[in-house]
TrEMBL record:
PANTHER family: 34 KDA TRANSCRIPTIONAL CO-ACTIVATOR-RELATED, MEDIATOR OF RNA POLYMERASE II TRANSCRIPTION SUBUNIT 27. Keywords: Nucleus, Transcription, Transcription regulation. One of its GO terms (biological process) is regulation of transcription by RNA polymerase II. It is found in: Nucleus. This is Mediator of RNA polymerase II transcription subunit 27. It comes from Ladona fulva. It comes from the Eukaryota. One of its GO terms (molecular function) is transcription coactivator activity. One of its GO terms (cellular component) is mediator complex. Belongs to the Mediator complex subunit 27 family. Its main location: nucleus. InterPro entries: Mediator_Med27 (IPR021627).
């Protein structure tokens, strides 16, 4: 590629930019006084037509000048920027190689972008290959909106699975069920539901209560879902139980999600007798293994869990 042809192409681009700028300037000024009063709109349109014809001619000249250029066969020559390598300042000596690398990287981005456009244009970008014109299946009932009878049936089935876990169902908040679970003589828990979705889990010691103080005349207080246990071990179990609640959540299979959570929770019946599968100790940092693996139900300390 000769410098003369490159200079010609640059001049053609400069002329084109100037002519385009003149068009926009004329449009911005609108009809002027020198157009006169008679047929001023026609004169203005004719002037624009002449300017656009000139832009069209300049554009053809740019295309011809660019087509006559050939890409350089060797590495990029950045002209006077090569003098940067002679800079005496230490932090500027490596600027020229960085410029060359940036140009190469930009060319690769353009190349990969063109390839990506070619590949994406061959696909319709559909989420699936299923024909959407077919009749849609009826949307399944949300796990939030389940009749109380269905919830009681699921809970009764789960209660029969574990002999050492007693489950009591109450509904202090409208139709949503709240389970009060007693796991042997180890711990107690409150599990709040919304439909068949578990919303909250609170674990306390076997000697702790979930109700507020007795009211007037010795009548029992209200159910307390928020006061934490005074024991650190059961506060940690509460934290892990809420993590398990989120892990087993399934909007499409709510019964399986509840049954899986209850199976996981039942594994705490050996909270104070199991040893950690990682370190083999009963206690670590003063706590028993308060974590149970979601798949194998193996006990781990908080610092030993995988």
């Amino acid at each position: 590629m000769s410098l003369e042809s490159l200079h010609t192409a640059l001049n053609a681009i400069q002329v084109l930019r100037s002519s385009v700028g003149h068009v926009f300037e004329t449009l911005a000024n609108g009809i002027r006084a020198d157009h006169g009063e008679d047929g001023k709109e026609t004169k203005f349109v004719l002037e624009l037509h002449e300017l656009l014809s000139k832009v069209n001619g300049n554009l053809r000249e740019v295309e011809q000048a660019v087509n006559s250029l050939t890409p350089p066969p060797g590495p990029f020559n950045l002209g006077n920027t090569s003098c940067l390598s002679q800079e005496t300042t230490q932090d500027r000596q490596a600027l020229y190689p960085q410029l060359v690398e940036s140009y190469k990287w930009t060319d690769k981005v353009h190349e990969y972008g063109n390839l990506a456009v070619a590949l994406l244009s061959q696909n319709s970008l559909k989420r699936s290959y299923i024909n959407t014109s077919a009749k849609r299946r009826r949307t399944q009932t949300s796990s939030h909106n389940v009749p109380p009878q269905a919830v009681d049936s699921v809970i009764a089935t789960i209660d029969r699975l574990f002999n050492d876990m007693h489950v009591k169902v109450s509904r202090p908040f409208a139709t949503n069920a709240v389970l009060q679970i007693t796991l042997g003589r180890i711990l107690k828990a409150v599990v709040a539901f919304k439909g068949l979705m578990i919303e909250w889990v609170l674990v306390k010691g076997h000697n702790e209560e979930f109700s507020t103080e007795l009211g007037v005349g010795g009548v029992g207080g209200q159910l307390d879902l928020w006061s934490e246990s005074r024991y650190c071990v059961f506060r940690k179990v509460t934290e892990n139980a809420n993590a398990a609640m989120l892990h087993f959540y399934s909007p499409t299979l709510p019964e399986l999600a509840v049954r899986s959570f209850m199976t996981w929770f039942h594994s705490f019946n050996t909270l104070f007798s199991d040893t950690c599968k990682r370190c083999g100790n009963h206690l670590h940092s003063g706590l028993p293994p308060t974590w149970r693996d979601f798949r194998t139900l193996e006990p781990f300390h908080e610092d030993c869990k995988p």
